[in-house]
Amino acid sequence: MKRFVIPLVVFGALVVFLAIGLTRDPREVPSPLVGKPAPAFSLSTLADPTRVLTPADLRGKVWLLNVWASWCVACRQEHPLLVEFARTHRVPIIGLDYKDKRDDALAWLMRFGNPYAASVVDADGRTGIEYGVYGVPETFLIDQEGIIRYKRIGPLTAEALRDEVMPLIRRYDVPAS
Amino acid sequence: MKPRHRRFAWIGTGVLALGTAVALVLNAFNSNLVFFFTPTQIVSREAPVDRAFRIGGMVEERSLQREDTRVRFVVTDTANRVTVDYVGILPDLFKEGRGVVAQGRLGADGVFVADQVLAKHDENYMPPEAAEAMKKGAEVSGSLSKTLRAPAANGSP
Amino acid sequence: MIPEVGQFALVVALAVAILQCVVPLAGAARGNAVWMALARPAARVQFLLVLIAFGVLAHAFVTSDFSVAYVAANSSRALPVEYRFAAVWGGHEGSILLWLLMLTFWMLAVSFFSRHMPETMVARILAVMAFVSVGFLLFLLLTSSPFDRLLPAAPDGRDLNPMLQDPGMVIHPPMLYMGYVGFSVPFAFAIAALLGGNLDAAWARWSRPWTTVAWVFLTLGICLGSAWAYYTLGWGGWWFWDPVENASFMPWLVGTGLIHSLAVTEKRGAFKVWTVLLAIIAFSLSLLGTFLVRSGVLTSVHAFATDPRRGVFILGFLALVVGGSLALFAWRAPRVGLGGRFEVVSRESALLVNNVLMLAAAGTVALGTLYPIFMDSLGLGKISVGPPYFEAVFVPLMAPALFMMGVGPLARWKQASLPDIALRLRWAFGAAVLVAVIGPIGAGGWSVMVALGLLLAAWIAVAGVASLWQLLEGADASDRWWERLRRIRRVTPAVWGMLVAHLGVAVFVVGVTLVKGYESEQDVRMAFGETVAGGPYAFTLRDVRDGDGPNYRYQRATVEVSRDGRPYTTLFPEKRVYRVQSNPMTEAAIERSFTHDLYVSLGEALTPTAWTLRIYYKPFIDWIWAGCVLMALGGLLAVIDRRYRRGRGTA
């Protein structure tokens, strides 16, 4: 009898829709900061609390800002890549130690290696908010004029570094004319 | 009652109930579906003026003005901006520079009068509508080079 | 070392579950008693193994073992111990483990309380449940292991989502999951009966108590969730038609239909096909709910998992289980007989109408919840279906259902007489109309919706009493009232259960009606020392002070409330910022009483000495949850009925 098949048919249609629904990614978010000047901050460095670093100090350079924390699990994933990249001395990486304790952060760098030219301490996360930090780790590429050219949410991968970050570095890291 | 009559009575009742339910649902659907528009769509007059809808995007930095319980802020999709007017208390997670969705009507002056402002309860979460608006805005303005993918669950703190 | 024990226990549990699924099914098909006998011990061993895994994870939480990634992501050293335990199910992986623990617990219960059932039936039931368990174990092990290591350990954890740091949240998920997963039992009974081709009254009698217990848990779980949303979200709402709430409400509606349908199948042998279908749908909706919440398809208040692999797995599993059982249904159901005949005016009809309405209600909720996904997946744009839709649909659907609740218990099985029912209920109807006319005026102004709500609530309550009165009637209808009252001891717990549950619905309806009709809300700016009036109450903001909780900072306002000029109470609403996740949270302050709640929540600071505040007056809101508790109590009373325990202990 056909009517007993009806529930099965209805359910089949439902599954098809849910399957298509699954392919839609609600997390695809562009950053409104790309193309805008990097928000200013003035924070003390991790290594030396008396030294203060601001983005203005890096004018004329292309640099990476990497948001990390000792409590961040995914940061460990990208960390070896950062350490390796730092060895090439292509561009400096500045760390933004986000909502972290200084001692924990220093111990973490001792253990996993320190790829950062300097790390600044954003203990209350205020600077993170300015940068629209969404989930640690995040990485920003900032050009010689202090404009954000790229932002990545989540761990940096070798592919992303090669295919997305490096071309941008080549494009923006030109000798000042 | 004869079995045949009984059968008819059953089928009749069933059809009636089903018909009523379907009519109710369709009617309620028609009048209560809330459509979603981006600031760009609103600026280009695609949004209706006579019914409530939702607007989404990001709260523009330094656009929030307060006057007692009345607030005004600007919602942007990076391409266009719409001013939102709201009386009431904003949700805990409402922040400048963050995603927001507001529901209400568009006034004749182009100001969106919201009766509801939604900011969901997760600091890493952007309402899908807001995300969509940002994406569309980016396509329109062409100024944003990258659409970024957020981390998987273990990537966020 | 210990976390690996948990992982290992899960792997072994998977092996046991596969055995428990395959061997007894084969045994039932070939009549091999030894193979069938494997089901019970396997179920018990599986429960133990999952319990060990759960215990290991709980231990890691309580001892703050941050070398486990899941613990590091959902707990912290500063988190109070009771919340560390609750944090076990604070995230995705732990929730699924809890789901599994509940499933194996239900299996364990079936293995013990099934001695009066034929071995083939028990073997099939436990095998079907084991199949579900295999799916969830694979899901856990392949996509969401809670025991993944984080080496070296994190110095401190990321803390539990502040939303979940609440006593209500400690018990809400276990209750809800007990209910969700509990529907796997009637589902397994239905599949086993379809496989064996023995859908009969005995099957319905065995299914009933299980269904009712699952329903009781689900009722309490939903009730707790609603109460929690009321006092922690700071909005004073008790139901938001949020997709996650809907995900739990749909199985509840179908489960309610199932309970009533089972009653007909047991007593009259009718509705067999219908009952089987409802059992399948109820559990399917539980699985669908899990899919919706856990896959991130709907990103809503509760959805903290968004990993596409997980979504694909759950959807595949959902398709397999539900598709498989509906295919089995399509194949086997045509052979099932129709059962006892009945007239259009009969208790069967009344229950059928209610059933159809419950299913229709579940369907409309499903439509409202899933329609945005459909639109989105077809690329037709983003839309949302808000509370107004659900409210518009629910009132006309529920009103006839509530009306039938008054009639049903008085109608006789098979054939009832309409004039007779009308005669018996004339006083009840009169009383209900009286309440509907006078009630709203007494409560604060007449309105159609309030009158309708009170009419239906009073109707259910008074008709319930009338049906009890009818039951007490002796052979000779002319007996005196005290003679009738003396027979009250003969009323079975099952009947009391029905009456209490129906009374719960009436109480619930009163609460909803009066809150909807007369609640008032004001968002105000208040400077220190300023007073705002609301009805007979006056609220004065004294000050707002800072302080420290165990793992958060707070700002606490002191709001003095007076009634008719006399001091009434003092409320302390808070605004909290949890240190680790730096999420702001509003903690409302509520003064509860029998007839109303005063609800104050703190907005934002406008100046150092002036804040925005939200002040609500919520009449009869606690009746909503009291009604739910009564419904659950009714379910419990029905379960303790002696009839279901007959034959137990005679293996």
Descriptive labels:
heterotrimer, A: 177 residues, alpha/beta, Glutaredoxin, five-stranded mixed sheet, two-stranded antiparallel ribbon, 8 strands, 36% helix, elongated, C: 651 residues, alpha+beta, 4 domains, six-stranded antiparallel sheet, four-stranded antiparallel sheet, 20 helices, 11 strands, flat, disordered C terminus
The CATH class label of the largest domain in chain B is Mainly Beta
The CATH superfamily of the largest domain in chain B is identified as Nucleic acid-binding proteins
Which sequence of strands runs across the widest sheet of chain B?
A: 2-4-5-7-6
Mean pLDDT of chain C, as a whole number? Answer: 86
Largest sheet of chain B: 5 strands, mixed, barrel
CATH topology of the largest domain in chain B: OB fold (Dihydrolipoamide Acetyltransferase, E2P)
Helix content, binned percent of chain C: 55-70%
Q: Which structural class do you get from the secondary structure elements of chain C?
A: alpha+beta
What sort of overall outline of chain B do the alpha carbons produce when their principal axes are compared?
A: elongated
Return the CATH architecture of the largest domain in chain B. Answer: Beta Barrel
Helical fraction of chain B equals: 25-40%
Précis, in short:
The complex is a heterotrimer of chains A (177), B (157) and C (651). Chain A contains five helices and eight strands, in the order αββββαβαβαββα.
Present the secondary structure layout.
The complex is a heterotrimer of chains A (177), B (157) and C (651).
Chain A: H1 6-23, E1 28-30, E2 43-44, E3 52-53, E4 63-68, H2 73-87, E5 93-98, H3 102-112, E6 118-122, H4 126-130, E7 138-142, E8 148-153, H5 158-172
Parallel strand pairs in A: 4-5, 5-6
Antiparallel strand pairs in A: 2-3, 4-7, 7-8
Chain B: H1 3-32, E1 33-37, H2 39-43, E2 53-59, E3 65-67, E4 70-76, E5 81-87, E6 99-106, E7 112-118, H3 128-141, E8 147-149
Parallel strand pairs in B: 1-2, 5-7
Antiparallel strand pairs in B: 2-4, 2-6, 3-4, 4-5, 6-7
Chain C: H1 2-30, H2 33-36, H3 39-62, H4 69-74, H5 81-86, H6 92-112, H7 119-143, H8 167-182, H9 184-196, H10 201-232, H11 243-268, H12 272-295, H13 308-332, H14 347-377, E1 383-385, H15 387-407, H16 418-443, H17 448-471, H18 481-486, H19 493-518, E2 520-527, E3 531-534, E4 537-548, E5 552-563, E6 566-571, E7 574-578, E8 584-587, E9 589-592, E10 596-607, E11 610-619, H20 622-639
Antiparallel strand pairs in C: 2-11, 3-4, 4-5, 5-6, 5-7, 7-8, 9-10, 10-11
Helix pairs in contact in C: 1-3, 1-7, 3-6, 6-7, 6-8, 7-9, 7-13, 8-10, 9-10, 9-12, 10-11, 10-20, 11-12, 11-14, 12-13, 14-15, 15-17, 16-17, 17-19, 19-20
